[in-house]
Amino acid sequence: MSAIIDDKVVAGAKSSNTVKEDPIVALTERVNALYLFRDRYFETHSIDEAIRKNSDVEKEMKDTLSKFDECKGYEIDGSRANYYYLKGKALNVVDRFIPQAEELLSKAVKLEPKLIEAWNELGECYWKNDDIQQAKNCFIGALPHDRNKVSLRNLSMVLRQEQTSSMEQRIKNIQQGVEYAKEAVSLDTTDGISWAILGNAYLSSFFTVAQSPTILRLCMSAYMQAEKDIIAKSNPDLFYNKAVALKYQEEYSLALRSFENAMALDPLWETPRNKRDELLQYLKDIQNSINNNGYVKPKRLYQMIRALDIKHLGPYKGGSYTSGEKSIKLELIPLKELALGLNTEKVVFGKVVCWIQDSDCVPFAFCLVDEQKTCIVVTVYNLAKGRGVTVGDSVGIPEPFVIHQKFSYMDNDFDYKSIRVETPVVLVVNGRKLGREQQASANLHTFKKTN
Predict the structure, then answer these.
(1) Mind listing the pLDDT tens digit for each residue in 52-76?
(2) Is residue 13 part of a domain?
(3) pTM (predicted TM-score)
(4) Which structural domain, as residue segments, surrounds residue 67?
């Protein structure tokens, strides 16, 4: 990599006859070409060459930097800020932090405080170096000069990573991050990177504010828009984060394939492979637990089922319950009679025979067996840390929402039904409705590779 050029050398250099075009124009074109090479790599290379992408980008970066060395002999006084910005941007093309890029970009913004692009690049430098506060200062500092999409979406990213002194402030940051990302999208609805970052903002909201299906749908909608952009869909982060969202929509087959897409785009990034393998193991554990009634021995299972008592349905045992000012009828039905989707005015009841460990702890999953020995998995969202049910508990679930998983993946066949419970407060455990203290949102750290 070339050394930083001294201000005086650049400003006072003598003109040469070998290059006739404006060096700043030439360097701008060269740096833009470097970024196009990186961002549109898979337009000129097959996915099988993904493992070479980083080294190919590094080579292009070095070739680009050599052009800056060729311009040492040219009079570019008055353009020093742009010169430093362009060279810093060239160095910033790689994922890792390069101190020289920070030094050059810092010089650029000191010489030209209104150079928005330099502020954004400098912010990204700090971001790569995990200096969140300095990155935030750069992006905030750029906005008064121009409400631009890059500063806005980067600020959305930074707010999600910023350390906060309270959960209240954390939630405020996440919500503000969503607003910044939405504004970035509104400035250019064709920019897939902005859409991807909006999707990530919604995903953070899902884990920090509320595990709501509505938020997940907004998240998925943003990712789908992002995929329309060739640059965004060349980014493994998009498919990794989309896979995380799909997992919590319980679209497991699509989630596994989305993790695979991330792996294909960046074969050296281990996180997607690890998360894919963890999800696959989780699904196998569910399938095996259902097939084996939670591995409870027949005699013990018989005793548990015999102990089922209608009085343990608590407020649901009388054939109706009150939701707000509304009275809702409930009919107790066997698990095998459940229809797919929402089972209105129905309630199911059974014994917990096991729970299934998931590395992310979201959702809380357990197997329920009823009097007819039908086994089903129950996934509970928005459960407070350390809360849940234990083996042997009697659990009643009103108006259950049922999903059928049926697909094959890597020689594994999955075919089972599950009940998705959005909040634990609807559950009746051992005759008592769970209290509000059982409800909380989970905070999951997932998608920090670049955004």
Answers:
(1) 999 999 999 999 999 988 876 555 6
(2) no
(3) 0.86
(4) 23-283
